[in-house]
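Researcher: Next sequence.
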Amino acid sequence: MHYRIEAKYFDGQSSVPHQITIAAIDQLDELRLLYANGASFSWQVDDLCFEQYGNCLEIRNKQFSGALLQICDEAFSKMFLAAMKRKNKVDVHHRILSIGFPKIVGIAVGMLALIVLAYFYVLPPVAAKSAVLLPEEFDTYLGDIGMRAFLYENTIDSAKTAQLEQFAAHIDFENTKPLYFSVIDSYEVNAFALPNGHIIVYSGILDKMQNSSELAALLAHEAAHVNHRHSVKMLCNNLAGYILISLIFSDVNGIMAVLADNAQQLHSLSYSRKFENESDEQGLKILMDNHIDPNGMVQLFELIEKEDKIAIPKIISTHPLTSERKENMQEIIEKSEYNLLPNNDMDSIFMQLRQ
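Model: Next structure:
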């Protein structure tokens, strides 16, 4: 079938369009452009690119810079689009538009659902495992940043820090990197570990403890966080979600901002239930391997329970509830065999820390 379609032609030299006639056949290997005065020239379809707006086409030719052909004809538009598809000259944008608005909406909703599922169910385990690809130097770098930021607002008690270091020297924490211990002069009942091996203990929690096995349990728990790189794994998890969102919205600066913010907030990091349970159990093993009373871990949780002023529903808690963790420790202790050896030096140092 032969087509003769009226069209507007902009030659790129004048803003006034020329009224021309397009001659074409079904095979559409070329378009013949006919002027009213009888002059004509041809455009090879292989040289064409286009934009479609409803039934209207704007066609350009890479051989004629600045030239533009405007055609508004439904039958011709369908024929032209089919010819361009046969020649694989239709980009993804036009292919998507050609499938219709309802299908586009369905695809968009499906993609959004996949992104949400990936964010909550795929990224966390992948991110945690990706931490093994990061060198240990990365832990040190992050921990050093976090320590510097923390010390701007807090003061180390040098005398008690020396005593805590003497106490910790009696324990094999099964660590592969050096551990450093510091006491912060504060009424806050708290302790935390940084990924560079720094374990910070507040004097407030020391004052609440009743025996040396509680302190040993606290240090063993925090050492387990360091040994298993929980801070870096949590950071990878947080960063993975931001990377996904930032890539979607092309916000690379957002990724760097999250990295910096997490490095400075490591001291207030909330570990997942899995990581807390892992540190509890590994800390308990450290106590038993060192012949220290494992019930110190149970007593530590009892201390924390007394300090908790607000009950947090399990569904919104970022940690396992202390009561559940205590019960888990009791069950493991009851099933385990261990030997206790008294350590008068540790008891003596502990009493000095309490003064």
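Model: The mean pLDDT is 80. Residues 123 and 240 are 6 Å apart (CA to CA).
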